[in-house]
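User: Teach me something about this protein's shape.
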Amino acid sequence: MEKNTLCIETKLVHGYRGFDPQTGAVSFPIYQSATFRHPGLYQTTGYDYSRLQNPTREELENTLAILENGLAGFAFSSGMAAITALMEIFSPGDHIVVSDDLYGGTYRLFEEIYKKKGLEFSYTDTSSLENVLQSIKNNTKAFFIETPSNPMMKVTDIQAVVEIARSHNILTVVDNTFLTPYFQRPIELGADIVVHSGTKYLGGHNDTLAGFIVVNDENISEKLKLIQKSVGSVLAPFDSWLMLRGIKTLGVRIKAQEKNALAVASWLKTNPHVEKVYYVGLPDHEGYEISKKQSSGFGAMISFTVRDIQLVEKILCGVKVIAFAESLGGVESLITYPAVQTHSAIPLEIRERLGVNDKLLRLSIGIEAAEDIINDLEQAMEE
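Assistant: First, the predicted structure itself:
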């Protein structure tokens, strides 16, 4: 059966090959080798050196490509390493329009590293198509979108942005970390490039750093192959295997997390200590209808503001089931303070304008019992 005809649940479990053709191993082996022996002069097994390619990483990269319905996938040592490699396809003087509400590490990379290399970045609310249009310049080469955004959960209409991009010969890049290919496949919506922090939902167990790029263009693929092998920030064989193992359960994990997230978000909306809840799966969210159009699920990320600033420390120090920790997407529920942790690299005036203020908390909902997550938040607020 053709891989592209299979349901996403089946693709997750079986991956690209589904097994090791040489041995029949159902769990694809860890090829823990830096180099590979040549059969003879000018002869190769197809593998020469693991920085160039490794069978375990190759299986993972091909698996990401089929999950996103892209042409080729690339695995890197972290999500930031993936975005760094992606930026290398651009040249000094190129302009990139970026979602204004995005992960602070991405902002730091663009502003502190790539501005010095001659790239130009404009930050705008990409959920507004008018803003997107007004941000275009003669040297604009790409739109870089987070949707839902981190941490304010803004939703961008991917197809509408793609239409604008194509009419101006601009690439569309979508960070799909929050929803994963299980819930959202931007390439099917017309995007050219998808990036992931695989550390999050794809790995799913808070034990592996990884990043991915999936592309749908042969020319871009060839550029990234050169960049990947030259820069060398590739994903190691063992980490590639951990990612393959994690991806197998992505479907069951993220569905359970989404169910929990809706329960937690609904409870937060009724809590007198909570000022506002940002969760895409709530019908009153301004991006709800667009989400239903372009995604098959809402994910498990929630942000909320408390009415009293003193509650922030009380919650962060008082939770017992939920862990006060950075990152997201694992089976364990995590709570983060964006203003101090994930978004501290973004200037205060920008954070305040976006709503990333000192009363905002971000929740990554895990697979625990929803009632235990809710009870944990309640006791932390009340004690």
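Now, about its shape. The chain has a mean pLDDT of 96. The longest helix spans residues 250-270. If you'd like, I can walk through any region in more detail.
User: That's plenty for now, thanks!
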